[in-house]
């Protein structure tokens, strides 16, 4: 079934599992598709119809497992620690359309087509993470095709709680060996391949020759991912997200994942805006906001320095 909302340029559909999807369409042809399972962006295409996010050919699309690809929402934890499932439960829950979201700054709405989603804990959720919260997610698409995500998490409990968070962004690249990241130079990072030992980045840019699984700390709000073969650059702008996760499983790790092709590591790179080293703590009634904006532009628009690109 497909329902059109002409006023807001949204298309409502269901996938083969009966899960609701919302597609946002910009006038020039760019689009983004969001699944209510996990509040997950599962597709982002430019005005030429080219897919900008990676999804594994072996991805499992049936709940309760999160799909391998797109942009899963990791909350209230990132990684595998404590009693919660890996990367938290938000990416495995059914979200609802938020028909009456609290107002956002005008800049977050002007000239964009958007959908607002809402996640509240169910009784079973409270058994594994006993905290009352409201998680509001706005996904918007600008007229130029830029994708923006705004997460607002409010404590509606009677006691404080803490959480970590990540937009686990799977970027589609031509060849991982031809990709470099700029903007994380000289930063400290936690290396998950070395028991989270702390190191300092020594390279002028991050390039890839083997498995990488790092959390860069205290990062700038603008970083760039250069794809030399495509002559395309992903510009990542963020607010409220001090850390950046960089992950590529490479060959050996890829063969251990049932929902990931053995050779697919060559066409993907995860670069996540995140809060990991110092979790957010909210007192009753407090709210946290984390913003992420993704642009895909020709590499000729970018120089070796990111200062001119600007923040959100």
TrEMBL record:
CDD domains: D-hex-6-P-epi_like. It comes from the Eukaryota. Keywords: Isomerase. Substrate binds at residues 68, 86, 91. Its EC number is 5.1.3.15. GO terms for molecular function: carbohydrate binding; glucose-6-phosphate 1-epimerase activity. One of its GO terms (biological process) is carbohydrate metabolic process. SUPFAM superfamilies: Galactose mutarotase-like. One of its GO terms (cellular component) is cytoplasm. Pfam families: Aldose_epim. Gene3D superfamilies: 2.70.98.10. It catalyses: alpha-D-glucose 6-phosphate = beta-D-glucose 6-phosphate. It is an enzyme of class 5 (isomerase). Belongs to the glucose-6-phosphate 1-epimerase family. This is glucose-6-phosphate 1-epimerase. It comes from Elaeis guineensis var. tenera (Oil palm). The lineage of its organism: Eukaryota, Viridiplantae, Streptophyta, Embryophyta, Tracheophyta.
């Amino acid at each position: 079934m497909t329902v059109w909302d002409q006023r807001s340029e949204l298309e409502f559909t269901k996938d083969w599992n009966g899960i609701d999807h919302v597609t946002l369409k910009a006038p020039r042809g760019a689009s983004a598709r969001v699944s209510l399972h996990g509040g997950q962006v599962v597709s982002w295409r430019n005005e030429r119809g080219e897919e900008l996010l990676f999804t594994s050919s072996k991805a499992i699309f049936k709940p309760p497992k999160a799909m391998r690809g797109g942009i899963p929402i990791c909350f209230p934890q990132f990684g595998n620690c404590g009693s919660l499932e890996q990367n938290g439960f938000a990416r495995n829950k059914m979200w609802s359309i938020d028909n009456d979201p609290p107002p956002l700054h005008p800049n977050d709405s002007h000239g964009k087509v958007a959908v607002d989603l809402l996640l509240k804990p169910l009784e079973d959720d409270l058994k594994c993470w006993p905290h009352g919260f409201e998680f509001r997610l706005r996904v918007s698409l600008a007229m130029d095709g830029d994708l923006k995500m705004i997460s607002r998490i409010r404590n509606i409990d009677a006691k404080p709680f803490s959480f970590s968070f990540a937009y686990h962004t799977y970027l589609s690249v031509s060849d991982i060996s031809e990709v470099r990241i700029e903007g994380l130079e000289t930063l400290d990072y936690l290396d998950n391949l070395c028991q989270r030992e702390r190191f300092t980045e020594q390279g002028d840019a991050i390039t890839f020759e083997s498995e990488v699984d790092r959390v860069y700390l205290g990062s700038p709000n603008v970083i760039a991912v250069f794809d030399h073969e495509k002559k395309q650059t992903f510009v990542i702008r963020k607010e409220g997200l001090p850390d950046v996760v960089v992950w590529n499983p490479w060959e050996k790790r890829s063969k251990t994942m049932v929902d990931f092709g053995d050779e697919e590591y060559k066409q993907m790179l995860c670069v996540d805006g995140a809060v990991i080293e110092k979790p957010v703590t909210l007192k009753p009634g407090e709210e946290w906001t984390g913003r992420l904006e993704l642009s895909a532009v020709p590499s000729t628009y970018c120089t070796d320095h990111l200062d001119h690109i600007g923040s959100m």
